[in-house]
Design brief:
Number of domains of chain A: 3
Shape of chain A: globular
Distance between the termini of chain A: 29 Å
Radius of gyration of chain A: 26 Å
Strand content of chain A: 25-35%
CATH superfamily of the largest domain in chain A: Bira Bifunctional Protein, Domain 2
Mean pLDDT of chain A: 96
CATH topology of the largest domain in chain A: BirA Bifunctional Protein, domain 2
Largest sheet of chain A: 11 strands, mixed
Strand order of the largest sheet of chain A: 3-7-8-14-11-10-9-24-25-23-22
CATH class of the largest domain in chain A: Alpha Beta
Helix content of chain A: 25-40%
Number of strands of chain A: 25
Oligomer: homodimer
Largest interface: A-B, 72 and 73 residues
Number of helices of chain A: 14
Chain lengths: 506, 506
């Protein structure tokens, strides 16, 4: 019962099918925007909570800043950029009026407002008021918010005009402390994405031409999707004194001298959900890592004779209560009984398509034997896909079961990544031949035709053009450099010493 | 050490002082918008979490809908309103470009977009796609989001152009079920506002002219501020089939007939924080109910000799660990040690102004005696304001202490309300004389000059004008009607049977 489109058949359509069959999100009548539906939003809530706890544990506090940024805040930035033009939503009027039976924008604003694409500018303005002395530093804040980028080719979760994210913004009294913060938060990202989203990432620094505008250094975590393309899963920027200078964030340092602060920013977004889909979903639909599943265990009553219904539901209620008292990943088990007036087989397939980690089908036979029929989503279609076990054992081992599933999901994705980062491509010729091919989808346990290449880069000024021509990108300069010398895969020049990750990307 | 302005001195300025001294929020450089700072946002997070748990417990699921609503969605509504004109943020361009050294809006949109003032229209559009059969009903969803109303006289928390809120939206197969939902959620609001925000409310139905546009019935909870004015703290709307008809939310009912769905919506916002301030803060600053305090217990080390510092901090760390293992209101105790490099007396006053419920000052004497010096914010300045008790007793009784503070705060506000709802005003003449007076601030345990009047209303068509002329409003028609007959306080007509709450308001 696979989806209308499979990964091997039509990967982009498969991606849309997964989302619609799991009922996670849909396109809205508001152009280019998405509606995030309960199952998709529930996943986001879990992701948010895991990150939020880590942010607070590293002494960050949440705030909220205005989403409207006066146009003049962009003027300085624009003056430094040749042919500045940015896709942004611009508010120009503050009223809607009726004229000749038609609604029109009215009350033109003196200064247009930009709907935040990111909040460095408006937050730097606040920082400049908050920070006077080195005693006021560091300032460590985070914001959960919606942001807008005027995408022309929207795609659910990956690229929509409005999306949800978190943006951390910090200010420090020394460059060293700000650089440490940048790396610390990058490591928080790696930790959460690998351990909660079960999505392995490659960590590194962006090349100059891929940096966030205004950053001294941009660091990132990069994940490999099942079609071999890269997805940037999070970025952390060391901004040096750049934003501090333009917004005048200055402080009196310990030597009683005025100095500009050193700032950082870092963000992850609902795009991560697109990454989770393309890392874990299969031809039957979504597969959600237990740690971020809105419900980890679904009970489906299987009632043949209506007179048994009460007995079956009572048995399930008792099980659910016991289960809810247990914890996994340090949190209470989240479970739900699907009591809707539908066929049990349809319910089973619905929760399978949603990717609920564990589905328990409970009928009279289970009630009488004190058993539970357990189906793990990850084992769907395999001989181990169906277990009948004692209810007590099921309840007592739930944490192990969910933690095992989580680990298996990570291991599977990690194995795919390991198999598909080519390190044996040593010349420009081999490199060009490799990326001339195209992937459809990487089967589990196999190497795809095209995925990531880890190889040499000269850092030449014309790299951006060459990459564009090949429709590839440099994802990052990984932290663990080999230090060896070789031919630049991009330009063919000898003597290149920098290892980078080359890939197609989202 | 009271604030620059007191309630009796200058109530509006006092309100601003409370917020700035508690460092809860500030005006932003983005006109009419506020920055919600960590202490204010922390309070909002607690409020949000309490509501969210109740919404989920009543089977609602969270979603996210686009904040941009196409202008045409308002066309139908506008056609039904004479002289339609609404203060709303209108997005007309999707790009910012540089021309002659100046940034200008570019790429005009074919259809302007409105930044959501509320989401009925865009959510009804989704409902019309989701709902086909009575089996798809009810749909019970909620959204936490930012919304925009183009306020001309902004005031922190009470009226800002952008604010945060939740909006519940539901669809049902019968009017009865939708009406029950409307009242159920109104009761959830009353429960949370009274029990978590310690703010007593009066519950009722809005008169016709105060209803949400498009609603059949609007219900509300109304709170009394310390200056005797009313603050609408939450509303719940029964929308009948009005939105279903205009957005075509129709379904096949159990009799196989097409029918329009019955919808509801209900919301509370960051305005509640303004209500908490004006219910509980005093001339020394903010007072936060323990249940929504970001930190419930603050430890301030008092170190006279630097060599004692480690010992004091170690003692506090042990106490904090023990305390964090305890629960109050079903949640872990939230505590913090203020280790900043500041004078301990300044720290004490800072946390006092923030309204942290319990502040513990710990010095060597406490360490040696195994004691804790406990100061409750609510008892500041009274003989009981300072207790020295055994550490063990403090830890073991923390839940009782916080729950007592919570109850005292509610009781105090409830007593104020009881004393200040006048029910003895029986004629138009008395009524006009009463509201000719003006209040400054209602002292604890006393009746103010002007607050609420509970009395008769005829429901006359010219009521809105008469109310406007008197600068008062009808807050609600309370559920518990007396059924007696009397003179309409507004028009002077005899034979009025409806009891209403009259008041000035925010």
């Amino acid at each position: 019962m696979s989806l209308k489109n499979t990964r091997a058949g039509n990967y982009p359509e498969w991606y849309q099918n997964v989302i619609s069959e799991a009922d996670m999100a849909e396109n809205s009548s508001s152009p280019g925007c998405m509606v995030i539906k309960p199952w998709g939003y529930g996943i986001w809530e879990r992701i948010r909570d895991v990150f939020d706890e880590k942010f607070k544990a590293t002494d960050h506090e949440n705030c909220y800043f205005p989403m409207f940024i006066p146009l003049s805040f962009f003027q300085k930035e624009a003056e430094h950029v040749d042919g500045f033009a940015k896709e942004m939503a611009v508010v120009t009027h503050s009223r809607l009026s009726m004229k000749d039976g038609k609604l029109i924008p009215d009350s033109k604003l003196e200064e247009p407002l930009i709907v935040r694409p990111t909040s460095e500018a408006i937050i730097a303005d606040s920082f400049s008021k908050w920070i006077k002395s080195y005693r006021d530093l560091p300032v460590l804040i985070n914001q959960w918010a919606n942001v807008v980028r005027w995408e022309m080719r929207p795609r659910l979760f990956l690229r929509t005009r409005e999306f949800l994210w978190q943006e951390g913004h910090t200010a420090h009294s020394t460059a060293k402390e700000a650089e440490e913060e940048t790396i610390k938060m990058l490591n928080v990202y790696k930790d959460v994405v690998e351990n909660a989203l079960a999505t392995p990432v490659i960590v590194g620094r962006k090349p100059e031409h891929e940096k966030f505008p205004g950053a001294v250094d941009t660091y990132c975590i990069e994940a490999m999707m099942q079609d071999g393309k890269a997805l940037q899963a999070g970025t952390s920027h060391f901004l040096g004194q750049n934003f501090a200078k333009s917004a005048n964030i200055s402080f009196i340092n310990a030597n009683n001298q005025p100095e500009y602060a050193y700032t950082t920013s870092w963000g992850v977004s609902t795009r991560l959900i697109g990454g989770v889909i393309m890392t874990h979903a299969d031809d039957e639909g979504m597969v959600v890592p237990p740690r971020i599943a809105p419900y980890q265990v679904i009970f489906v009553p299987v009632v043949k004779n209506p007179e048994d219904e009460a007995t079956v539901l009572e048995y399930i209620a008792k099980l659910q209560k016991e289960l809810s008292g247990k914890t996994a990943f340090g949190e209470k088990i989240r479970c739900k009984t699907d009591k809707r007036d539908r066929k049990s087989v349809d319910k089973f397939w619905e929760w399978t398509r949603k990717g609920a980690p564990v589905i328990c089908e409970i009928g009279m036979r289970d009630v009488e034997g004190g058993k539970v029929m357990v189906k793990e989503r990850l084992k769907l279609g395999t001989p181990e896909g169906k277990e009948i076990i004692a209810a007590e054992d099921f309840v007592n081992s739930i944490a192990d079961r969910l933690e095992n599933i989580q680990q298996q999901m990570f291991d599977k994705a990690k194995a795919r990544q390991n198999l598909n980062v080519r390190t044996d491509i040593k010349t420009q010729a081999e490199f060009q031949k490799y990326f001339a091919e195209s992937n459809i989808w990487i089967e589990d346990g196999k190497a795809g035709k095209v995925a990531f290449v880890r190889g040499k880069w000269s850092g030449d000024a014309n790299s951006e053009e060459l990459l564009k021509a090949m429709k590839i990108t440099i994802r990052c300069i990984p932290f663990n450099q080999s230090g060896t010398e070789g031919e630049c895969l991009l330009t063919g020049k000898p003597g290149a010493t920098t290892d980078v990750i080359y890939a197609r990307s989202y």
